Amino acid sequence: MSRRSKSARSRKDEYHKVEQTPWRRFRNPHPPIDILSPDQLDAIHDSSMRVLSEIGIKVLCGRSRSILSAIGCTVDESSEIVRFDPGLVAEYVAHAPGTAELHARNPAYNLTIGGDEIIFSSVMCPPFANDLDRGRRAGTFEEMCEFVKLVHAINAVHQAGGGGFEPLDLPAETRHLDVGYAHATLTDKTWKAWSNGAERARDAIAMAKIMMDFTDEDLIARPVITAPINTNSPLMIDTAMAEGIVEMAGVGQPLVIAPFTMAGAMSPATEAGALSVQNAEALAGVVLAQAVRKGAPVVYGSYLTNVDMRTGSPLFGTPVFAKTTWASGQLARRYGLPFRSSLNTGSNSVDAQAAYETQLCLWAAVTAHANILFGSAGWLEGGLSGSYEKLILDAELLQLAIESFQPIEVNKDTLGFEAIRDVGPGGHFFGSPHTLARYDRAFYHPILTDTRNYETWNEQGRDSAEHRANRIWKRMLAEYQKPEMDEAVDEELRDFVARRKREIVARLAA
Amino acid sequence: MSRRSKSARSRKDEYHKVEQTPWRRFRNPHPPIDILSPDQLDAIHDSSMRVLSEIGIKVLCGRSRSILSAIGCTVDESSEIVRFDPGLVAEYVAHAPGTAELHARNPAYNLTIGGDEIIFSSVMCPPFANDLDRGRRAGTFEEMCEFVKLVHAINAVHQAGGGGFEPLDLPAETRHLDVGYAHATLTDKTWKAWSNGAERARDAIAMAKIMMDFTDEDLIARPVITAPINTNSPLMIDTAMAEGIVEMAGVGQPLVIAPFTMAGAMSPATEAGALSVQNAEALAGVVLAQAVRKGAPVVYGSYLTNVDMRTGSPLFGTPVFAKTTWASGQLARRYGLPFRSSLNTGSNSVDAQAAYETQLCLWAAVTAHANILFGSAGWLEGGLSGSYEKLILDAELLQLAIESFQPIEVNKDTLGFEAIRDVGPGGHFFGSPHTLARYDRAFYHPILTDTRNYETWNEQGRDSAEHRANRIWKRMLAEYQKPEMDEAVDEELRDFVARRKREIVARLAA
């Protein structure tokens, strides 16, 4: 930690000329909504324990099967199925800590995953980029960098998602290095690292160490990486994901293990059944992580929605999502684990549907005490697009939620009895000294909300929130300022990326 | 109650061909969000008691001042200001019941205002009508009838708002009679009656009695009318509103007394100050109602939002709304009163803003245990328009909320262990017998949500939720079926309207 004594600090308050609420860590101080009775919670737990012990999880990664076998799981090598004794599950899940600290390049952006804190983490890497000017298309690396800049600039986004969309102009084998470098340099917030496969995970770890000037011990003591892992529902963990768990747990980086149990497709068409599958898969991942390293931080993930049974299409922001998110929060708390949820929409454009589906997820997740919300900004079209306009809509939704959960200040001054007396019945508070003293700081000021009256709006072209969002992201991108980085670190990162690309290309050519 | 033994029943399940979730009364079984500490709640209560006792409320109606004077309020006739002793307030507020039953023409649509129940009541009477085909315009009576039909047809709307928009083609003096007749005949749900002024209130009461074949005693025992009353913030009750309170309380019809305290304009630019003003005004109205008739049902109303301090424009669906709605719920519960909130948006079109502002109100109000939500369907443009497309957006938002708060069913069948075992790791639940058995009833089916994939949506014209809503309301209107009504009742209503019109016209001519 010695190399750079005067580490770069973002000047975030200066460069956000698009007016926003200030960056702040977000806590929901109210009790969560508990939808399940204690008996119902037990029943889902018990059923998932039967799933783990009687049916088992197919683990495609031989190394992971060996690790699980070594702690006492029953492994059938021919079917690759691992069965977990419920007592063993309880023992290993208990090793996982209740919270994980996340260290950003800029310490002002440090986060805690767990407790009452809620982290908004932007969309990770859908296949397509989308904005009103350029349409829906395969995104390039240059465009992905724009997206990272916007995510950096939005105060309500706590964590960069790790892409925005795939930079499809770059070779698939080395793309993760460019994405990692972009995140290390274009933002000084924390970010999600591509963790699918041992090689990608190790590269992310190496880059995090360079970026932070950390040793292995530093990294374990002060985690930097958020590592997303999806199981392959139903009841499977593929090799890339298992390797990600093993590598990240080995150096104590927070793993977020989320089954994608779309009810009616990858899990039963019942909430209780889908939760049972989810719970079995998530806990299997937690056990694997704890088998690698006891106390490795790990987050209980839920990504449970349902198909429309008439059309087979996935639906997002549904009652099933709300109900199972509340239930998943109860499950996570039962195991003493932080809880991951997400914000989703199936809409193809930034219309009313995009808003209501996303916001239903948001309020359900916040009232469920979800601790980290993936897809919190930019998620569109069922996760197939990273949308620039949606980033701005989400900035407003997130701000609104954060500010709604701030306390009410009650004191002699805010009660304002004298002001009420002085204005009197039938009077007006616009010109009151009590009002004037608060003129420029009272109340929430929106990003996207249009306050023009109908006549003005009509004369000026009747634009929708989607079109306003388009203007706002362009302004925000123009105003972007890159956070400072020590040139030596930047160079070391660039050298690492170049060396690793050479190695990978050489290996592929061989 | 003898005249019509086989009262008409709606065949609501048959005629809703636009697919909806079924009508159901809505309860939030979870504890409300309490944002204020007990000390903070006390401080706001205490400050509002000082407002009532030291500043007082200007009551423009002489008859109401006399009623208040008679129970021991201090009345200054020259200033028309009434001061309320805190002990007297406590005594009279305690007479108000905690719940009120509401009787609809179709008993299947009966409601309870209070407890855990949440009633969605559609928009009342903005000045303008709005839809994509005909634009924003002064609405006609014929169009208002369309609106009432749609409100009747939407299962998630529990109560008709009492207009949709003003029928500006009808004379102002007699318009309330036509609006009342339209509601009595085009829907058999409950509805809000125009209650501003003694004459309008008495006409509403007379029509309710005819519609239900009720005596005065019947009406008191089984309330029919929901009577909206707005105080004139700050600290004023005008004659029309005071008369509405007196008339409706006299026959025990539920009064909903809501100050419109826009913080920074009609109340201080602080949440605590605005809540103090609201509380003083609402309780003054409650006391007046109880002074007229002890035990008259009365609802504690909040309609608190804020101006954008930079522009002076009102903002809706803001953090101020969420926070003060939670606080208002605490105040209402402190006094043992049902609680009214509302759904609002300032958007000029049915875009993302309309959705997120409305839905923020919705989730804040539901988690605040609001018991009746005004403006629940069709409210647009800061309350200046009743919008046909917004009705459909709101139908989706309301359905989503209602269904999200239904319990999760957990039993051997829904846990589906055998199905999970039979499908096994890596399998698929689409073809599973467990899924097929639930094919047509599993999960929420949306009204407005588009489940087409991007390619299909793009080819078919890239329509937004607003454009889909336009098609849906037209389909719903075409499918509308008028609930049956005994011809004798219909005739008696028509006769009453005709007679009252003659009387009013004659008086105006005199």
Describe the SSE topology:
2 copies of one chain form a homodimer.
Chain A: H1 12-15, E1 26-27, H2 38-55, E2 57-59, H3 62-70, E3 74-76, E4 81-83, H4 86-93, E5 100-102, E6 111-113, E7 117-120, E8 128-131, E9 135-138, H5 141-153, E10 159-160, H6 175-186, E11 190-191, H7 198-212, H8 216-221, E12 227-231, E13 236-237, H9 239-250, E14 255-259, H10 271-292, E15 298-301, E16 306-307, E17 314-315, H11 319-334, E18 339-342, H12 352-367, E19 372-374, E20 379-380, E21 385-387, H13 388-404, H14 412-415, H15 417-423, H16 433-436, H17 454-459, H18 465-479, H19 487-509
Parallel strand pairs in A: 2-13, 7-19, 8-21, 10-11, 12-14, 14-15, 15-18, 18-19
Antiparallel strand pairs in A: 1-7, 2-4, 3-4, 5-6, 8-9, 16-17, 20-21
Helix pairs in contact in A: 2-10, 5-6, 6-7, 6-19, 7-9, 7-19, 9-10, 10-11, 11-12, 12-13, 13-18
Would you kindly provide a brief summary of this structure?
With about 500 residues, chain A is an alpha/beta fold. Chain A has 2 domains: about 10-35 and about 100-405, TIM Barrel, CATH 3.20.20.480; about 40-95, no CATH class. Helices cover about 45% and strands about 15% of the residues of chain A.
